[in-house]
Design a protein that fits this description.
Helices cover 65% and strands 0% of the residues. It has one domain: Hypothetical protein af1432 (Orthogonal Bundle), CATH 1.10.3210. It has 18 helices and no strands. The protein is globular, with a radius of gyration of 22 Å. It has 383 residues and is mainly α.
Length: 383
């Protein structure tokens, strides 16, 4: 037998038995030789990092459009923050950090311009063609739309990265089915711990950072946030530990405190659940209930904060006023390309032959940055 590669040796020494080890990967759709010192999930992470769809995230809306300033998060900075939080949790739980980072980098690749408002628009456009959600679109990006030096389409990522993203898409459909009894939910299955960690890190990141961005943009006041117990308790701990901080420093410290207390609680609760359920293998993980979850007490506090953000930020009149014209432009672009497919780039004209025109138009629009979508709408309006 050949000697184990460096990645296998490292993971055997550092990772828990319930982590996803690279040596146990189901491989790639198109087999490739192993690399002598880069594991499969390292290579997946780098393929995502270097692809065009990842770079375009820097000019895509997270919650607030670029017209509102340049302090707030973009889809790219959010992705990097999720990856950072997820790696911290993964290391504490002794699971595969490389896989976690690859999953985190991929998780928002399918987001269209203008954030969730753009997603809602494309979902309306495709209501008779299977709908649109960014999690499923990320799979299309990784498996079909991105290209590389290889002779086949897509990035040829490992099974575990693709299945992790597919789980997110199925979870979206399950949530939608709970609101629509005509849509049957997919069968329940607990994903890898690495997938659960990225989901949790995503929630932690946007809860803290959306509040921070909203304060900076003047959509919220500190007085409003102090009515939320989760925020108020974090502020009180910061002031107690650091009474000499300025007002602005306190605000920054509260954001860090919110993240730290959520991560600390999550690691502690997950560790207890792993022990209580006697988790020893990846197979045990699949048979167990969700394991990377917050404690019930913290979950309740998070729910109050999330409801507050929904009512006071995501439905803020200023934000809605910015979204409406963006959604209108995106809808007009969809209709224009549907009527005149010759306006599409040649690559997408060819793709339409196998994927159908409505889905292909959505693929093209979903890949646009906010700025390019505005520019393209202006160009075609003047043509």
């Amino acid at each position: 037998m050949p000697p184990p590669d460096l990645t296998t040796l490292r993971e055997s020494a550092l990772l828990a038995s319930y982590a996803m080890h690279s040596a146990d990967s189901l491989g790639r759709r198109h087999p490739e030789p192993l690399h002598p010192y880069r594991g499969p999930y390292q290579r997946d992470r780098d393929r995502i990092l270097h692809c065009a769809a990842f770079r375009r995230l820097s000019h895509k809306t997270q919650v607030f459009t670029g017209e509102m300033g340049d302090y707030h998060r973009t889809r790219l900075t959010h992705t990097l923050e999720v990856a950072s939080i997820a790696r911290t949790i993964a290391r504490a739980l002794r699971i595969n950090e490389d896989l976690v980072e690859a999953l985190a980098f991929a998780h928002d690749l399918g987001h269209p311009p203008f954030g969730h408002s753009g997603e809602d628009t494309l979902n309306d456009c495709l209501q008779n063609h299977g709908g649109f959600n960014h999690n499923a679109q990320a799979l299309r990006v990784c498996e079909l739309l991105e290209s590389s030096y290889r002779p086949h389409p897509g990035l040829n990522l490992s099974h575990e990265v693709l299945e992790g993203q597919a789980y997110r898409a199925r979870k979206h459909l399950k949530n939608r089915a709970s609101r629509d009894p005509l849509t049957p939910p997919p069968p329940p299955a607990c994903p890898l711990l690495e997938v659960q960690v990225v989901d949790a890190a995503d929630s932690i990141a946007y809860n803290a950072h959306d509040a921070d961005d909203s304060l900076e943009l003047g959509l919220l006041t500190v007085e409003q946030l102090l009515e939320v117990p989760f925020w108020r308790d974090a502020r009180d701990r910061v002031v107690q530990r650091h009474p000499s901080l300025s007002h602005r420093q306190v605000l920054r410290a509260v954001v860090h405190e919110l993240i730290d207390c959520q991560v600390t609680d999550l690691v502690a609760n997950a560790s207890h659940l792993l022990s209580d359920h006697r988790i020893r293998t990846v197979g045990d993980v699949h048979q167990a209930p969700p394991l990377v979850t917050s404690s019930p007490e913290l979950s309740d506090k998070k729910s109050v904060l999330e409801h507050f953000l929904l009512q006071n930020v995501y439905r803020h009149p200023t934000l809605l006023a910015k979204r409406r014209p963006a959604q209108h432009r995106l809808m007009e672009l969809f209709d224009r390309f549907l009527k005149e497919p010759s306006l599409l780039p040649v690559k997408f004209q060819q793709l339409a032959e196998t994927e159908g025109l409505p889905r292909t138009v959505a693929d093209y629009l979903a890949g646009m940055t906010d700025r390019f979508a505005f520019d393209e709408h202006r160009r075609l309006s003047q043509a």
